[in-house]
Amino acid sequence: MGAARANPEREICGLLLGRDQDVLEVCVAENIADRPDKRFEIDPAILIGAHKAARNGGISVLGHYHSHPDGMCEPSAYDADMALDEGALWLICTADGRYSLWRAGREGVQGCFAKVDMHIVE
Q: What is the rounded distance in angstroms from the CA atom of residue 39 to the CA atom of residue 31?
């Protein structure tokens, strides 16, 4: 996630699109949060557009990604508060190139995230 490296002072974000459990595309979105240095909010137009495309036969929204400027590579308490879609994927990256994948659920890290094994295929 080169965007996190290029913008280490703010959270970058976007959508993870795919089929079944396979992420096939990453859709970059603007972070419109009032405090982009502390949290993220995906541009609603991007999110709505992705869901409409999926309903019309496109690939599904499996979750999203965002960066943590503080260098932590696991979900924060704020992430837990925002994890409404059980089963959604959360990819968290840092400016130094680390990343981890999580699935929102009912228990685990911060009370609602389970670590997911990730395999990158180029």
A: 9
CB 108 within 8 A of CB 115: yes
**What are the extents of the domains in the chain?**
2-116
- Rg, C-alpha atoms of the chain: 14
Q: What is the model's pTM? A: 0.86
**Distant-in-sequence, close-in-space partners of 2: CB < 8 Å, separation ≥ 6:** none
CB 13 within 8 A of CB 40: yes
Q: What is the pLDDT along the chain (122 residues), one digit of tens a residue?
A: 565 455 657 899 999 999 988 899 999 999 999 999 989 999 999 999 999 999 999 999 999 999 998 878 999 888 888 887 788 999 999 888 899 999 998 776 667 888 898 877 66
Q: Are 61 and 15 in contact (CB under 8 A)?
A: yes
Give the CATH class of 2-116: alpha beta
